[in-house]
Design goal:
The complex is a heterodimer.
Chain A lengths: L4 H7 E12 L38 H13 L3 E2 L6 E4 L9 E4 L6 E12 L2 E16 L3 E5 L11 E5 L6 E7 L9 H19 L11 E11 L9 E6 L2 H20 L7 E5 L6 E6 L9 E2 L10 H9 L5 H12 L3 H9 L3 H9 L4 H19 L10 H12 L5 H12 L5 H8 L7 H14 L1 H8 L6 H11 L6 H11 L3
Parallel strand pairs in A: 11-12
Antiparallel strand pairs in A: 1-9, 1-10, 2-5, 3-4, 3-14, 5-6, 6-9, 7-8, 10-11, 12-13
Chain B lengths: L5 H10 L4 H19 L2 E4 L1 H16 L11 E5 L26 H8 L3 E6 L33 H8 L5 E5 L6 H7 L2 E4 L20 E5 L2 H11 L17 H7 L6 E5 L9 H16 L3 E5 L7 H16 L20 H12 L2 H14 L5 H24 L2 E5 L15 H5 L6 H6 L2 E9 L6 E8 L4 H19 L15
Parallel strand pairs in B: 2-3, 2-4, 7-8, 7-9
Antiparallel strand pairs in B: 1-3, 4-6, 5-6, 5-10, 9-11, 10-11
Helix pairs in contact in B: 2-3, 7-8, 8-16, 10-12, 10-13
The chains are: A alpha+beta, B alpha/beta.
Amino acid sequence: MALTYDEVISKYEPVLGLEVHVELNTESKMFCSCSTTFGAEPNTQTCPVCLALPGALPVVNATAIESTIKIGLALNCQIAPYSRFARKNYFYPDMPKNFQISQYDEPICFDGYVDVEIETEEGSKQFRIEIERVHMEEDTGKSLHVGGATGRIHGAEYSLLDYNRAGIPLVEIVTKIVPGTGKYAPEVAKAYVAELRDILRGLKVSDVKMEQGSLRCDANVSLRLIGSDVLGTRSETKNVNSLRSVERAIRGEMIRHAELLNEGKKVKQETRHFQEDTGLTRSGRSKEQAEDYRYFPEPDLVPVAPDATWIETLRAGLPERPSLRRKRLKEEWAVPDKEMAAMINADVLDIVEATVLLGAEPTKARTWWLGEISRIANEKETAISDLSITPSDVAEIVALVAAGELTDKLARQVVEGVIAGEGKPSEVVAKRGIKVVNDDGALMAAIEKVCAEQSETADKVRNGHIPAAGALIGAVMKETKGQADAARVRELLLGHLGH
Amino acid sequence: MIKKTAAQMSASLTSGETTSVALTQSHLDRISEVDSKVKAFLHVDGENALAQAAKVDAERAAGKKLHPLAGVPLALKDVLAQEGVPTTAGSKILQGWKPPYDSTVVSKLKQAGIVILGKTNMDEFAMGSSTENSGYGPTFNPWDLTRTPGGSSGGSAAAVSAFEAPIAVGSDTGGSIRQPAALTGIVGVRPTYGAVSRYGLIAYSSSLDQAGPFGRTVLDTAMLHEVMAGHDPKDATSINAAVPNVIAAARSADVKGKKIGVIKQLQGSGYQAGVLARFNESLDLLASLGAEIVEVDCPSFEFALAAYYLIAPSECSSNLARFDAMRYGLRTGDDNGASAETVMNATREAGFGREVKRRIILGTYALSSGYYDAYYGSAQKIRTLIIEDYKKAFTQADVLVSPTSPITAFKIGEKSEDPIAMYLADVATIPVNLAGICGMSLPAGLADEDGLPVGFQIMAPAMQDQRLYEVGGALEAALVSKWGGHLIDQVPALGGAK
């Protein structure tokens, strides 16, 4: 029987567990010096080590360890003074050694937390997500199954293997079980992944692109009757490739579990795959028989024993936590909630802050990036960060406007020129001959001309109907090709007409 | 010329008395003459060997400063990857595989200008003590062609004792250099774990494997040891420290005032009478040279064999998982759209020999959840106890000694149906591997009852490899003067040496 979400949460409490895999953005792989560049020709970024040729040995990438420790620190974790790599043994053609080097009972970071905030009808609510562990491992290669209808191995005629991804450093961030989110479970999960993404981006340790797979989320969901303290059977949903999918997958699984439970059936402990088109999950391999990975300490690697002072140096160098930073900027800039949300959604917070730090007034900086520049980016169907306009260009333009050397209208032309590659704002101004007409004499000539041409309107203004001046100001601006300062024109015009 | 030591060959090359091409050719001739009987080599690389020899000769003629071993030929155990040269680790599963890269050991040999004659036979993936487990048939002991040369580096040991090469590279996971050295009457050293890079050494048991040198004299062995050893950033377990001066130690050959500890547990029952007799004579000789002989107690050694046969199979069950027919080596069963899993199973079934399968199954079992603590976990605890035993013993003695093997060379087929009897051949060598320290075997004479070589084992603490050479050099000098020549001079001629 189909249930509504409200029916589910009136009877059951969801318990979450989230495993996030992050591909680090190191230049070389976890255990060899092969490049990690995304999208290269298949099998061009491989060597004896990542192809597991007989005799080849792994050597740990020191940058990957540093990045992992930074992640652990940013997630309020303890850093193990001594941790080991372990081999996770299982056969699969895209895993060259037929074991994955991972960490098992001795992860490098453990016992942390992340606080997330979500907006609800009752106002904003904060949830603490506890982190069980953060550990390092290596990615597998990719299998491409050819000839089947679905692209899945079942029914395929043959499979191709690309080992470029084999050995890319991965960090796995595992939460403890997350109870107590109630009806907000899907939103909390989404907010957690978003917060993680922002933290990782701030640390500059990963590209965190969910669509390219550099950030992947596995969502564990189980239900129990409200009031019960016995955990239900969980399912693990993989292939959740966007923030929206995290929310949809969890909501969908909650409903699916509740329907099974209501019918007196059992939830199967299994891996499920999220289907982007339907928002539903389909069954993957069953986990009823626990797999035995025969973990044991990796004998080819020595233990990781980071120096305590080094850890403190890394801690001191951590960037501000994204949630705290957002709060601070919102206050400092006195931005309304809606505008703040718009900036976060448009992903312009960094660029606006950089512009403000270069001296631009926050409201102006925000308006340029969120307004005109976003509009042009949309038009060109490209990311703002890919446009050739920088925070220093925008700061310069804001300064030119403030100094009265550009009007807003002229400034838009300058922005357009900078994006078109005509140079820095000052160069665009020079090349295009853009300048505000500051010469009162020239302005007065234009005013007299316009008043003569539109004498009827001019008379209205003379007789005290001030709003009519707008049309005259517009005409003067047109006469001066927009290079006049509208405020000065208004002042002179009104004076000329006896006010 | 082939009867000379490597040091003498080096001198002849330097003086211009001979050339590397001539020296290499005479070894290739010897190989064609006797290897059909000995079967030490899996692959003879004559063309490349002669090219390398010619290159060294040209460099020497041009006045280039060369390494002392430049131009001297060598036999390489087939467990080490050599670019473009068939490398099988004695297994059918790697038949025809040519590595696209050199192991670090091979790079170092090439850098020194050493001429690699070819790849030698071994127990498949170094699992065995007789070379009978090779996928390509056994190697025969030059002292008695009905007997095994020991193993797993039996091909390298036989090549050196049959004068097919003056020096050779082997690998030692539980005694695979020292035991065949003992059984063929030559010198073999297992260096300290981490002293020689494992990069390119096809792994059997990563925490125990170590490549090392064979020679007919202590000095020759030291000269090769010096070439092979040194820190390698490609091996995370490689020790970043200076190589002990083993050549100077071999030359000094000084035992005066040194304390030599006889391990109580590595003698007595299970040891052949002739082995014990030669061992005790050697102790007397050392005492006469001014060494002090003491007895040390290593109670945990009793469990060493059991611990080894849990740790090594556990690691090998994982190390050998990569042989799956997907990227290199044998591939069978790939027809009618068979699945990857079917092809993997069929290939591993066809490509691995019985002993390899036995150890993979043992190791898989020992690592399984629910059994891990009882087997792998306990074995690691024994390992710690053995390390403690050694630590204590080395406070009482500078080096420790024992017979290398409890028995002399056994007959082909004698133990191949009884794995436990075969495993016991390594009872005296395995503790060194478990503790990660170094050990040497050198010839102590022939057993009275069978006239076959007996090995004398010397053990030293980690990175104190020079002590092996000091004591070994002294004992060798005393024995040579007693015998009026090296033991190897008594080996049968086989095809009639020139």
